[in-house]
């Protein structure tokens, strides 16, 4: 230290000053409590059973969070931090919870695991994780820009900590500006709880940094705007002084090709979720260079590799279709938007119709995606459907035994069925259930009154400034989240577009207590005395009938919506249609009893929608599928004719006669009578109907779904004519939804439709993506998966909140 330097000691702080010149920069080192200290968190003064239970609850909660994280459902740092109980030295009872670093055995407070991990592991405090500089590396010089506050440069702070940790005993540094450079900024302060234990006595040390006498009077002529330029200059100096990053390990040709194949497969199968231009992003190209892959991929991804990958998928699909004796064509996308698709707006739009081939072995093969250009009339749909049939079958059109589509049942599907007697064309069950909710909304007076009342409440809460402020305040207090009530756009008729109303009903029902709190506020009571609208809304939300009716509407929609999700997940076959609607009738009847609703009008709406969707093939498949055989008193397993009406029995005879050839029609009816009287051998019937629990959903499912068809082809070979019809009927799907395409999938197709070359490339990518989805039986959309991942990422915070809910504050 120079001789002219003097010391002063005040309150445990040592200040080093130079009398000749004002200090250029002063660094304030705040020494914190050692991270390896074994001190325990204080408990409340009452060291009884309640305190012990609170500590145990915190400990068990942290163990649960850590266990989930180790299984891949939580933060990375739990692999290195382990909760432990610290006992009281006298009583031996648990006193507090600590986090133990498994790398260096240091102990930390368990109050904030995320901050502990960031400070102890990421910042290099833990010597066994990634601390200090590597041997042989050159320590970075003190940054030139250290005279500026950290808020002016986001990426300055990591570089300021580049000095070797051992030289400063791992203390956190906080910059204190010299009065000579006073620009109106406040000093940076950083508290770090992870100092080394051997430096506990080094508290509040003040150091003076010298850059030489020539720099002590440094002034920037451009003012504070020069600070960014100075930071860029510092970066250049660091790049010249620090060694360049070593390139990744060299890969041989086979390894490069294998890695590129996987990369391109991922890109194609995401189909638009990752844009083509993203391949040229500088960070991605830097990553490719780091792992030893070529960086220029944009031309290759849309060239030969795309053609080869498409050729493989196409050849595999065509081979599987050729192997099947018959198939069903599924057409999805004619319906623009869905009931719970809240991104759709009023009015029409251009549709991307997807065609999938359902095979008898239970698998599905993607065929093509057709852009309709907004044309959705029945005649056009009929032409497109038949063109697709001939494209798949060639001249042997009898191989297509049916079509299931989400629209045009009344005209296009029936016309094709009338022209080709061997076909069974049905409408999608999913769309039938969705349309039922629209029927309720349109025809049930309860829906109209609830929607009108909720619109009045929601608009009042959102538009009146004083009420809005009260609502937001109460919602944050009660639900720990903000936001107004979601209301439909004024451009759309809420009584005709229920998908836009449903979020509003959800919000009002979930905020019932919040709305009651708003009404009880003193400010709201004052408004009631001055405004009739306020009194009307107050009387409405304080009326129990309003909430009962809202809950009734919401419960009915939730009931049908649950069935929609089940149908979407299970993708039932045609024989399931009649039991499905019977189950729906039973649930609706229970709903009427629960909410004291007159059954007649509701049942009438359900029956009307059932008749619109009904097809005689439902009854025929229900009778012919061994899965639905019923055991009688004699022990026989017989077709469930007693579950059919007289009209449905006649429908079975008529349909089977139509599907059979003229020569076999009477034979089919005779075999049907024998099937009705004899049924199936009990042993085979029980084997077909055997169920097992699904490990994912927990529901009981048929152990071998293909056994219904296989029984007809093996054990029931005596029914030659009836068997040919049965195997072609009972395998057919009741829904047309093969898989969900995300919005980027749609945008890619729509954006490239004008260019022939671009259109071909987009269709190839769509084909590859759809083929891969059906191969792995992935019927969900990327949006749903993202929502699940975001929900999972927040689960740990929720668990931690529960852990610390009852924890002592000190």
Automatic annotation (TrEMBL):
Residues 160-169 have a biased composition (Polar residues). InterPro entries: DUF7963, RNaseH-like_sf. Residues 1-22, 112-169 are annotated as: Disordered. Pfam families: DUF7963 (PF25908). Residues 1-10 have a biased composition (Basic and acidic residues). Residues 49-130 form the DUF7963 domain. It comes from the Eukaryota. PANTHER family: DUF659 DOMAIN-CONTAINING PROTEIN, OSJNBA0013A04.12 PROTEIN. This is DUF7963 domain-containing protein. The lineage of its organism: Eukaryota, Viridiplantae, Streptophyta, Embryophyta, Tracheophyta.
């Amino acid at each position: 230290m120079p001789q002219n330097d003097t010391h002063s000691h005040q309150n445990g702080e040592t200040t080093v000053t130079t009398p000749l010149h004002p200090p250029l920069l002063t660094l304030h080192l705040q020494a914190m409590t050692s991270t390896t200290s074994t001190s325990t968190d204080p408990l409340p003064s009452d060291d009884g059973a309640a305190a012990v239970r609170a500590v145990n609850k915190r400990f068990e909660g942290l163990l649960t969070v850590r266990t989930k994280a180790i299984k891949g459902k939580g933060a990375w740092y739990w692999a290195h931090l382990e909760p432990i109980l610290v006992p009281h030295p006298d009583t031996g009872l648990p006193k507090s919870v600590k986090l133990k670093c498994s790398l260096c055995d240091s102990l930390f407070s368990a109050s904030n695991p995320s901050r502990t991990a960031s400070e102890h592991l990421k910042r290099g405090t833990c010597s066994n994780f990634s601390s200090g500089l590597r041997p042989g590396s050159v320590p970075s010089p003190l940054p030139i820009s250290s005279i500026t506050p950290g808020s002016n440069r986001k990426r300055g702070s990591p570089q300021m900590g580049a000095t070797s940790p051992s030289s400063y005993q791992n203390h956190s540094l906080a910059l204190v500006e010299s009065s000579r450079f006073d620009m109106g900024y406040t000093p940076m302060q950083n508290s770090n709880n992870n100092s080394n234990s051997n430096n506990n006595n080094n508290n509040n040390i003040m150091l003076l940094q010298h850059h030489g006498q020539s720099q002590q009077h440094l002034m920037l002529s451009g003012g504070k705007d020069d600070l960014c330029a100075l930071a860029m200059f510092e970066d250049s100096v660091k790049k010249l002084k620090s060694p360049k990053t070593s390139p990744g390990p060299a890969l041989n040709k086979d390894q490069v090709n294998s890695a590129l194949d996987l990369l391109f497969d991922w890109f194609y199968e995401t189909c638009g979720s990752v844009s083509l231009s993203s391949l040229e992003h500088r960070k991605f190209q830097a990553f490719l260079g780091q792992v030893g892959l070529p960086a220029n991929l944009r031309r290759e991804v849309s060239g030969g590799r795309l053609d080869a990958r498409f050729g493989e998928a196409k050849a595999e699909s065509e081979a599987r279709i050729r192997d099947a004796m018959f198939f069903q064509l599924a057409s999805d996308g004619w319906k623009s938007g869905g009931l719970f698709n809240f991104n759709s707006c009023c009015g029409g739009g251009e549709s991307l119709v997807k065609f999938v081939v359902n095979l008898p072995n239970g698998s599905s093969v993607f065929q093509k995606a057709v852009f309709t250009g907004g044309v959705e009339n029945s005649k056009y749909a009929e032409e497109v459907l038949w063109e697709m049939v001939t494209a798949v079958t060639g001249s042997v059109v009898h191989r297509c035994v049916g079509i299931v589509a989400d629209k045009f049942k009344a005209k296009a599907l029936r016309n094709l069925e009338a022209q080709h007697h061997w076909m069974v064309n049905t409408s999608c069950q999913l769309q039938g259930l969705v349309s039922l909710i629209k029927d309720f909304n349109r025809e049930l007076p309860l829906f109209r009154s609830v929607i009108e009342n909720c619109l009045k409440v929601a608009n009042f809460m959102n538009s009146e400034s004083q009420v809005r402020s009260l609502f937001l305040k109460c919602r944050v207090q009660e639900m720990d989240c903000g936001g107004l009530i979601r209301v439909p756009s004024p451009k759309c008729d809420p009584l005709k577009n229920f998908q836009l109303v449903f979020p509003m009903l959800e919000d009002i029902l979930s905020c019932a207590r919040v709305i009651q709190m708003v009404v009880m506020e003193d400010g709201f009571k004052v408004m009631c005395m001055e405004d009739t609208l306020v009194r009307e809304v107050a009387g409405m939300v304080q009326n129990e009938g309003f909430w009962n009716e809202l809950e009734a509407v919401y419960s009915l929609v939730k009931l049908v919506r649950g069935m929609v999700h089940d149908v979407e997940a299970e993708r039932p076959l045609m024989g399931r249609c009649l039991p499905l609607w019977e189950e729906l009738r039973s649930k609706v009847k229970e709903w009427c009893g629960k909410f004291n609703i007159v059954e007649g009008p509701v049942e009438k709406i359900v029956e009307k929608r059932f008749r619109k969707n009904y097809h005689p093939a439902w009854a025929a498949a229900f009778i012919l599928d061994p899965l639905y055989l019923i055991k009688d008193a004699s022990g026989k397993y017989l077709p469930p004719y007693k579950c059919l009406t007289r009209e449905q029995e006649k429908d079975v005879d008529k349909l089977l006669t139509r599907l059979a050839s003229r020569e076999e029609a009477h034979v089919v009816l005779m075999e049907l009578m024998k099937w009705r009287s004899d049924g199936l051998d009990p042993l085979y019937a029980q084997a077909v109907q055997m169920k097992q629990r699904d490990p994912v959903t927990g529901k009981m499912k048929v152990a071998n779904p293909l056994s219904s068809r296989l029984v007809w082809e093996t054990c029931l070979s005596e029914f030659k004519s009836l068997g040919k019809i049965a195997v072609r009927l009972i395998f057919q799907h009741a829904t047309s939804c093969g898989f969900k395409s995300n919005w980027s999938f749609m945008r890619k197709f729509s954006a490239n439709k004008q260019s022939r070359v671009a259109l071909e490339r987009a269709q190839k990518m769509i084909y590859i993506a759809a083929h891969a989805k059906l191969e792995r039986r992935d019927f969900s959309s990327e949006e749903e998966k993202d929502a699940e991942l975001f929900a999972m990422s927040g689960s740990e915070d929720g668990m931690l909140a529960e852990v610390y809910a009852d924890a002592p504050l000190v």
